[in-house]
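Handout, section 3.2

Students often ask what a structure token actually looks like in practice. Rather than define it abstractly, here is a full record for TetR/AcrR family transcriptional regulator. The first block is the sequence as you would receive it.
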Amino acid sequence: MTELATARRSRITPEREAELYEAVLDLLREVGYDALTMDAVAARTRSSKATLYRQWGGKAELVVRAIRHSKPGRIDEIDTGSLRGDLHALVRLEDDCTIERNSALMRGVAMAMHNNADLRAAFRSQLVEPEMSSFHEVIRRAVDRGEVRPDCPALDFLLHMMVGGFATRALLDDQPPTQEFLTSYIDAVVLPALGVPTT
């Protein structure tokens, strides 16, 4: 990247960037991914479309970066001393209202990914891969502490189990996931699969 391009990308302050991301998420909740346009983002945020494209390249990158920015923290930064404590602490990062709003948002984005290769690629590189890396760090600590056997076959499916509990709550029960549901799910499904005691 040239110095000029770097200077252009750095013109947006962190505060302004946060405002833009919040506006993008609001629009995403209102109209969905397919109907969201860069024109609408520019109008909502009083930005030029050229600035948006220069900074983010396109809609997929902007939307995924907005979702990533809204995440309350990284799981690998949580270290309670036990895997159960770490996973419960992860659930407690967001209250039930926020979990419900984000669950609905992610369902809409997941639907859009089926027909949009750019969104799928951005989602994978900006969210899925970092999340997988964070979970691997949590698991490494649990294995190092002797909580989980290194050859436990369920280790490769930890993230799948976590996402599954989150995503299927609305699908199967017609209810949003809640802290209570997710912590119960962790204790009843995830930890037993890993051979970790829940008491």
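Discussion prompt for tutorial groups: The two ends are 52 Å apart (CA to CA). How would you have guessed this from the sequence alone?
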